[in-house]
Amino acid sequence: MAHQYPAVTVFGPRQSGKTTLVRDVFPNYDYVNLEDRESRNLAASDAKAFFALHPPPVILDEIQHVPELASTVQVLVDERRHDMGRFILTGSHQPLLAETVSQSLAGRTAILDLYPPAISELGKSVHETTTDALMHRGFMPELWRTPSLDPTVWYRNYFRTYVERDVRKLVNVRNTILFEKFVTLLAGRIGQIVNLHSLSGEVGVSSTTLGEWLATLESSFLVFRLPPSATNISKRVVKSPKVYFTEVGLAVYLLGLETPAQVARDPLRGNLFENMVVADAMKQRANLGKEPRLSFLRTGSGFEIDLIASVGGEVRPIEIKSSMTWHSDFSNGPVRFVAETSRAVSPTVVYDGADMDLSNGVSVRNFRTFRVT
Predict the structure, then answer these.
(1) What angle do CA 112, 89, 169 make, to 5 degrees?
(2) pTM above 0.90, yes or no
(3) Architecture per CATH, 7-113
């Protein structure tokens, strides 16, 4: 993208590796972290002096802290419109940065999303780790760089830092305890249609407020919504999205599961496994610089496809099972979907067992080897 656009903007959750990535790819660029108070104050008070001190090519980390700086970036870009890759911007909070980009840098910047590592990026380590330990540890880079870290302690600090530093900036939360309760309740509803009216009674705040909180969680990359698929298989389809956590390890922490053994015994283990697979599919698409184009199907009669990938005009139904043992009925849903849906191809089952290719055309893949594209 840096060869095609004057600027590149990288979105992503905190500590997902944005800074490490852009500094590694552009080692000769000047680097400014706008969380630093001195740099932030100079950028906000005198943008001309700021860029005299930090001329392009430059990495501007966490630019949402000084949104007005984007106007100056626009001017500098337009002065040398055909010079590519002079500005690399990063940000953790999409609404603030997206608003900045849309107002000042439209048509001048490429936009990329960086999530925590996908399963395929962990190399042999992921094959040496049990499934329950993998869900317990999650995929944040620091937890893999430093294996001695306790995931429970790490996610507790990560979440508390998020609530105390970021939530107050993004939304008016008077009672952070209620906000934390809401997020914990969401962890118990992974892969489900979330009814905010029902949750309103449990949390003790209005459904309108919960909608704002959910949007905040999504905009800061803690959760994401999987939309329902538009399909001709039935007119009676569920039209509300499902909610997943970007980082399954955070969901495990919020559920109070402190060891892989506790994950293995928990009634929501299947939901956590599904979350891990769906999030990994999203990461795979994002790592190619592409839109996720992922959805699900659920009809009024109870027929469901856990994940549908739309690629190149074709749709691929994917059934997700946490079992290590193969059962022939796992493939029933994808086979039916292909039979009843135009443009449907490559029915797939993702589970925790060995890879197989069935005679009915179904690809059976272990979640570690599954590729959505």
Answers:
(1) 95
(2) yes
(3) 3-Layer(aba) Sandwich (3.40)
